[in-house]
Design brief:
By secondary structure, the protein is of the alpha/beta class. It has helices at about 15-25, 50-55, 70-80, 100-110, 145-150, 165, 180-190, 210-215, 220-245, 255-275, 280-290, 300-350; strands spanning about 5-10, 35-40, 60-65, 85-90, 95, 115-125, 130, 160-165, 195-205. Strands 1, 2, 3, 4, 5, 6, 7, 8 and 9 form a nine-stranded mixed sheet that branches. Strand 6 (about 115-125) and strand 7 (about 130) form a beta hairpin.
Amino acid sequence: MKAPFFTVLIDTYNHGKFVEDAVSSVLAQDFPPEEREILVVDDGSTDDTEERLRKFGEKIRYLRKKNGGQASAFNFGFEHARGEVIALLDADDVWLPAKLGQVYEEFEHHPAAGMVYHRLYLWDGRAHLSEDTYFIPVSGHVTESRRALLRYPMMGTSCLAFRREALQKLLPVPESLRFQADAYLTALVIFVAPVAALPIFLGKYRLHSANLFKVNVERPSRSQIEGRMATREALLRELQNWLQEYGQDISSRSIRAYLKQWVKAQESDGFVLRAPDRWKYFRHLLDFPRTYGEIMTPRHRAYSYLRALAALFLGYHHLYVLDDVRMKRKRLFHSSAKKSGAAEKARTLAAKS
């Protein structure tokens, strides 16, 4: 039997109430069904996931395994995947109908690309959609340019598609990564192949109480922060291990700057658990424009230096409160602007009719 171009790999753990939507969004793709297979890896769910998936019959391949975390589920799925390209989809997310067709064309246009990624809407599961703010289109041989390396973003699972040839150079994913296995792959694929970015929306990232993004939006609990830090520490350790094993100089200026995004995130979470003194917080903030200044706008760079200076005078807690107020005002402004725009559009349509 001829292998399909795509294997759509859906890993799931206790997402029974969402997984039907994920599978249905793949079945609704504007792409020849004979050129894709749907592989659902159930990582030992204890809910009704298996029962809900029975309705799809032979339209999917359902594989159940003992719970081992995201890396374990990925490795299991990769072993059983038949496609030339493996496209990842979280069980709580969905794709837009044009997803596979657009990604296929991008791989055809860039035959050397090891990964294609795209934008995702942020979605509350109903009608409300908002645009991501973290997407940065970086394509080509990322590691050949320090600027590209610093701009290269981390992205959500459901926007990732890997060519098998590139993926095999990164496998197996260390199974110590119960979470963030997708971050491991995206962080390292640039060292084995060029990548291609599609600056269009081809999926929806569902916001709900159990996902990492929601934890980041709301004020997390101490246990959530500690769990996030443990996950990030394991990820950083495994990234360094792979880079050293494959001959990369992790002491080089560019790679140290690349890895610093996880180091700084660790520091930021650690400060929430234990507030730093003013001098320590000043040095933490000063490190951002010193490391990333070349990819910042002049305004952003100046703001970053001023914020570091403010830490010396205000200290961590006062600056944290000011940042919180500023972010709330920013969200309120964007919400009001969006409502005004929608109202204006409705009035225009009413006038035309």
